Backbone:
């Protein structure tokens, strides 16, 4: 399960106030950042690597396994 609250908290700690700021930092489309902020999509492997590089959050932290 994707935990968007971790991304938002880390983004705000870095001064990003909204998805547009995150899009600029990650160099992705604004709609991609918007979907991440609002939980409409989980990050791909490439995007998770960008998040880790820019915000210090690993893919394991962002996407946690849900017990069946």
Residues:
């Amino acid at each position: 399960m994707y935990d968007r609250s971790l991304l938002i908290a880390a983004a705000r700690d870095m001064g990003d106030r909204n998805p547009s700021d995150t899009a600029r930092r990650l160099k992705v489309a604004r709609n991609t950042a918007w979907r991440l902020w609002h939980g409409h999509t989980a990050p791909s492997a490439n995007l998770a690597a960008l998040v880790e590089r820019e915000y210090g959050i690993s893919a394991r932290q962002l996407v946690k396994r849900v017990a069946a």
Notes: Residues 3 and 62 are 5 Å apart (CA to CA). The mean pLDDT is 92.
